[in-house]
Batch of 3 targets.
Target 1
Amino acid sequence: MIVIIGLGNPGKKFKGTRHNLGREVLDLFRRKYKEKYSFSDWKKEKKLQAEIAKGKIAKKKISHKEVLLAKPLNFMNLSGETVSLLLSFYKIPPQNLVVVHDDIDIPLGKIKITKNRGAGGHKGIISIFNKVKTKSFSRIRIGILPQSLKPKKIESFVLKKFKKEEEKKVKKGIELAANAIDLIIEKGVEKAMNIFNQSKNQDKKIRDKSISNNYQKEPTINK
């Protein structure tokens, strides 16, 4: 099984804020690929402190056969509690974990896929590091850095909603991240990094067909 975690804060109050991009990516990914992965509806699992959706992977050449989407029901700085519970309950190794989250150091509309990297001050990632005691998992980092450069008060900035003129770039970043999840599931993190971390691929609209033409045959995430 591979588990994809979309970080953010629960509740209507935080919907549409910069800190909730991880949750928005999972919502789009589930809708867009519902038929491909036979995703269930979202279901709240209080014992796991998460809202989850389960899917199946039909392709025989992919070693893992299930995909789990999860949105923590606790706040961002407690994200590690949910991640720890999920990994323990489903017996998932950290290398099969992908965390999707906003990143103030990446320009708005861009994404970056990384693994074994530091938290960069992100409280959700710091919480996960503290709970799972490892950095050996993958992350899809979605840029929220505005054109006016990094604000001084980051904690309040990430809780603000996007401006109308930013919406086009926000949508682009969410779509890129959703497509990146699909590629990670099918072909592994290394292949996804090679494609999505190239600026030339992000400057144009990446379509599923153009991505699939560059797929390698071997996945890198194990069951």
Target 2
Amino acid sequence: MRISSSVLLTGCFLFLNHTPVLSDGIAIAPQLGTQGIGIAFVHRLTPKLNARLSFNTVSIDRELERDDIEYEAEYVNSGFGAQLDWHPFSGSFRLSAGIVRHEPKIDLEAVGQGDYEVGDKTYVGNLTVNGELNFRKVSPYFTFGWGNPVSENRRFSFNFEAGVVIQGEPVVKLNATGLASELGSTNVLDVSTDPEFLAQIELERSNLEDEASDLEAFPMVSIGISFQL
């Protein structure tokens, strides 16, 4: 039996332009942003409401200077999130709210500097200053964005999201080890036991904690491409 070329062309056209019916409403969505790299699993609850479970992890190293102390800083975080995405206009625009269980932390280390301004005084010597900033482990977050990973009749979707994580004011720990002298003095101190230095390091810790309070609300931005199963 002979099939004409017009019939074959018509069949190919219909196949390529066929829009799949995706009724399960389940998608996976790799993502990249301020929370690092991650992946989300999305499930359609209603035509306007989706549920999302996600995992993200991040590690960033950078230099940070505070009161003439140059720190090597490392921000690390990983966690799981659960949120609801509401599409008020039944399109790609969405408003989202959820909670994240994570462990955001900033590690600080300063070593090998000639002098250190600690609290209200300056010390000279062979010191190592270590610290860390810890935030609460369960935080709410609120975002808006575009993209519906489980949109009907669409297998792929580009997603953008921006908002804020309310991670609370950080708790700062700061300590120092080594030998040093106050600037202009020849008296050598063991900074781990000297009462006056310990009072100054506590003042430095308190000042750093006040400055870091700006991180209570941490910006959240991510992009990604989703695939509906």
Target 3
Amino acid sequence: MNAHTLNRKFHYWAAAVVALPVLVILLTGLLLQLKKQLTWVQPQEQRGVGKEPTLTMPRLLEICRTAQDAGVHSWADIQRVDLRPSKGLLKVYTGTHWEIQIDALTAQVLQVAYRRSDIIESLHDGSWFHPELLVVVAIIGVLTSILLPVVAKAKSKASQVSCLSNFRQLSLGVMLYVRDHENTFPPVRKVSGLHL
């Protein structure tokens, strides 16, 4: 494979690698625009009966512990709590991306659902990727850009050495022919327009 073909293949794959993050950003952005309509992304918001919350914080933790799927055992498992007085609703977000919707007046659990919008947001803004990972990718990119010309030069040098070796073998063969045939060179034949 020559350097030109290698360069084309490298740019082909590099374009795919560059396009992948752009596609992730576009797709996650589209999902975030539609998150209120897609319950797969974000659970639909329920309505409570009262407007004023009557729950205490210890009672709220006790209610969250009853939601088996959410896996809440202590306050360390809860990421944040949102109060929506206009809807009479408390939303509890867990560290495992579950959302518990609780009626603010009756303390009844209205819904327990998995919330993917936070994961999609972190993919969209890039915070899902660890900075260490980005540094490693950058180092690999720099090393690749440094090594590609070196590899191309090594292939070119190998091709030159191979060509020189072939020429040496032909010369040696002609010299042996001349020695064996009383100092006469091999006959020249014309083959399809070429002199051999």
